[in-house]
Specification:
By secondary structure, the chain is mainly alpha-helical. It is built from six helices and two strands, in the order αααβααβα. A two-stranded antiparallel ribbon has the order 1-2.
Length: 137
């Protein structure tokens, strides 16, 4: 049971990161403000499959169904428990889905920055041509 919960927590964190990496396809833009208001009221927001999966995983971790994760709900998951204070940006002792998304975006941006730095360091320097010899009369 403990291993299953650990796997679930890791999947939830990864799903949240994946959801943030996926962008929904843009909706067509209505021509007028009136059409935009009607469009917004009648069209559901486009949600990527990764976002749907992240929402399901969040709900599975939310044992009491209050829409937020408490320390006790994540204490069995070391990776989530270790990141709890950083993810709890409003300091209320709970992590909302919006805070999970923000944390995932921050985590992904830092990971991407580290990868870019590592890739830049691994790329060999472009050799420069030696200076042309001086011509002597």
């Amino acid at each position: 049971m403990g291993l299953q919960r650990s796997v679930l927590a890791t999947v939830a964190l990864l799903a949240a990161c994946a959801a943030m990496a996926q962008t929904p396809s843009p909706s067509p833009v209505p021509a007028s403000a009136a059409q935009a208001e009607t469009h917004a009221a009648t069209e559901p927001a486009a949600v990527s499959p990764g976002e749907l999966k992240a929402q399901r995983e969040f709900k599975m971790l939310d044992f009491n169904g209050d829409g937020k994760l408490s320390r006790s709900e994540v204490k069995l998951f070391p990776r989530l428990a270790a990141a709890f204070d950083e993810a709890d940006t409003d300091g209320d002792g709970f992590v909302s889905y919006a805070e999970v998304r923000a944390f995932a975006a921050k985590y992904r941006a830092e990971r991407d920055r580290q990868r870019a730095a590592a890739q830049a360091a691994a790329t060999p320097a472009v050799p420069t041509a030696p200076p042309a010899p001086e011509a002597r009369p």
